[in-house]
Amino acid sequence: MSTDSSPAFPGHADTAEHTSLHPHGTLPNDRIARVDVPALLEEGRTRCAAGLRAAVARLASPMDVAAAYHFGWLDVQGRPSGRTGGKALRPALALLSAEVTGAGDGPGLPGAVAVELLHNFSLVHDDLMDGDEQRRHRDTVWKRHGPETAILVGDGLLALAMEVILEVDSVRAAHRAARTLTTASRALIDGQSRDLSYERREQVTLEECLHMAGEKTGALLACSASIGAVLSGTDDRTGQALWDYGYQLGLAFQAVDDLLGIWGDPRVTGKQQWGDLRRRKKSLPVVAAAESGSTAGQRLRELLADDAGHGSHAELTDEELAMRAALVEEAGGRTWTLQEAWRRRNAAIRALDSVSMPDAVRQRFVAIPDFVVARVG
Amino acid sequence: MSTDSSPAFPGHADTAEHTSLHPHGTLPNDRIARVDVPALLEEGRTRCAAGLRAAVARLASPMDVAAAYHFGWLDVQGRPSGRTGGKALRPALALLSAEVTGAGDGPGLPGAVAVELLHNFSLVHDDLMDGDEQRRHRDTVWKRHGPETAILVGDGLLALAMEVILEVDSVRAAHRAARTLTTASRALIDGQSRDLSYERREQVTLEECLHMAGEKTGALLACSASIGAVLSGTDDRTGQALWDYGYQLGLAFQAVDDLLGIWGDPRVTGKQQWGDLRRRKKSLPVVAAAESGSTAGQRLRELLADDAGHGSHAELTDEELAMRAALVEEAGGRTWTLQEAWRRRNAAIRALDSVSMPDAVRQRFVAIPDFVVARVG
């Protein structure tokens, strides 16, 4: 789906507006295009790899081995693996945010390590709670090392994240960064709690759904995008603006992820077609469709009520899945979610307007939300 | 078992020695006897109750309800319960340690709340990992609210502990207290990890056993006994001495707990007779006996090897349990553990020698280890 010429996406109009209104705001498109975002993400992951491994090695046995397996550093037989762990937004954002002061990204390193630890805490525990047996085409930690070890590994990673941040030399910076990290960790846990309780409910409102996405995805990217700046000793206002940027980026990311969870090409995403519908996930497109007030939305509500009413966990057939996907689309759930991704992308970029930073740093900040939404249009 | 007249317990000799050698050290027995430790513990729990409830209420649903159930504030039907939660060393120690500076115990309150949150994080997760269905004569959280909620509640309590501490006004005090708390949380998690891995092994050395007890019990009481002082702005040396005091107290407590786990009177402890033997726990008396080199110790080793070798989890009969208890005693495991409790009690009191504090505060610090060891002799 291309959005280049569509007036339905306020993103483009907004961007143009802000480029002209704010001399220190967003950059012209020709400069944005030059940022190699995949390389930026890869570099972030590489830069924090040593610190991450050193942190994980502090865990007692068998947590250390199970965590190394989770990160892909050990294969299923426990042998060193050549896996790099792929690309990730979080460490790249943490390092980039340290650069807003104009110094290097060095102070952001413990922040990058801490957000990775925090993120992986939530993956390990969520996989167990959700009963997911596979992650990145390998058995999940609980499946490979047992539920007890998975609980311990998650606990260990959460505590380690805090430990790494509190070891930062500057007491003031360490304290502020630890508060940022704690806010994100509490939000992650609250979000997962709501997610599980919503799964048992027939109806979830779009507001609840967005709030939960803010907790599960927004807060961690908000933390990532601001923790480096906090560690570099920037002022509270800048820290807050970067938090807001990351939060909106997280919501854009979630909207995109939810679109891919239904309509993503399995050859690109590596996930099953209609995967989120298969798992009866109340994702943004589904909830937006159900709330649309349209006939298709009403039909979808009835199907969701049937699911809940009968406590049915029977597998849905491909015909049923195709029908549900069509209903979501007909009720406007797909369009709304794509627009939402653009709205959040715009809000993220707008949040940068009040922050003064070197041009090259701003350029990279702006390129990231564009990269995120480009995955769907 | 009475130790009043036994020369086998170095505790008594040491105490006398230190009372005379250190004018600011331990107090004469007649003053120690006057501290009402049960009242002190009850008061600690009462003092932090409001703060604890306010912290737990921050958790998203259904964690808030499940956590309130765990703390005993709600009954199984979710109705408010009159349970006070009983007595506990941790909050009392945190409040007492705030008083070493001569000010009130006020600055210790967030510390008392935080150590309670941390302790209960470990209870909720450990119950799930250990498959324990009952705690304080009620279903455990995972049994009542499901494993997913138990994982979340534990995660939430761990994150809350950090949040509460980082909210303390003084940045320097909050930072030091957060480091203290993180050290304890990492030790708790490492200790539980070792505990689970030791359960799968045939032999555990006494050194490993003590190290693990230091992590699981020592570190949390060390944190409790020092976090109040840290929050009161005391110097590092005092903080370290109080940490050492709490660590040794924790090991004394564990030795006593392990004795009661085999020979405790079920009418007093509320636990099954020979409970730790029933659960084939490699507790201090068992490991000390197995390492004794005696004939009884050798026989015990063979039984433990049989347990491990046959992967047997068949229930042991009362005859078998009585025989094992007799072997542990004959091999000196009971005596060694009682002596160890006294050695640790003495080391705890010695650690106070270097700390200057008001007499009334010292009196209470000294009375606590005495109260702990008095449970067994």
Write the layout of secondary structure elements.
The structure is a homodimer of 377-residue chains.
Chain A: H1 10-21, H2 29-32, H3 37-56, H4 63-71, H5 89-98, H6 109-130, E1 134-135, E2 138-139, H7 141-145, H8 147-166, H9 171-199, H10 206-231, H11 236-263, H12 266-269, H13 275-278, H14 284-290, H15 295-309, H16 318-330, H17 333-351, H18 359-374
Antiparallel strand pairs in A: 1-2
Helix pairs in contact in A: 1-17, 3-5, 3-6, 4-8, 5-6, 5-10, 5-18, 6-8, 6-9, 6-10, 8-9, 9-10, 10-11, 11-17, 11-18, 14-16, 14-17, 15-16, 17-18
Largest interface: A-B, 42 and 42 residues
- The assigned CATH architecture of the largest domain in chain A is Orthogonal Bundle
Low-pLDDT windows of residues of chain A: 1-28
Query: What Rg of chain A, in angstroms, do the CA atoms define?
Result: 21 Å
CATH class of the largest domain in chain A: Mainly Alpha
Q: What labels describe this entry?
A:
homodimer; 377 residues; mainly alpha; Farnesyl Diphosphate Synthase; 2 domains; two-stranded antiparallel ribbon; 70% helix; disordered N terminus
